[in-house]
Amino acid sequence: MTNYVALLRGVNLVGRSGLKMADLKALAEELGLKSVRTYIASGNLLFASGKPEEKLRLMLERSLQKHMGKQVRVMLRTAEEMTAVVRANPFQKAPGKNVQAFFMNDAPPKDLLSTVRNKADDERIAAGKREVFVAYGEKGIGRSRLKIPAAEAGTARNMNTVAKLAELAREL
């Protein structure tokens, strides 16, 4: 059995993209996933399974599409990979709430930095294994105009959340 974290893209509490975390947990249990739990209501699912990652990702995406009536992209990481993301954060000195890890299913492109648009002088960007790290400046993420085309299909979590998810995944 491997412990996983599933990070859902574009899931909110209410509105058209609304998904109750109790429903997400139930969907995962219906798929036969073990030790299922959610963390904060932003599309974070923790579970254990012996199935391969790609099969799990596709199972979750199909189940979510059926339940929600729209495509929901899922990024999966093992507990070890989540811990590695925490360690790989190149902006360790910045407050965790100001650093976002954009999770993707593939590695960032080699030309990542040349494709970025609207970067403020105090925003910093770095590529990870299957992540893009962004340290937001004084304006914070809420007022940033930064566009990262390579990360648009992924989903972001701040490093405080990433660290907590890594801890929870190890404890499953």
UniProtKB/TrEMBL annotation:
Top-level taxon: Bacteria
Signal sequence coordinates: none
A Pfam family matched in the record: DUF1697
Entries under InterPro entries matching the protein: DUF1697
SUPFAM superfamilies: SP0830-like
Protein name: DUF1697 domain-containing protein
Source organism (scientific name): Sphingomonas anseongensis
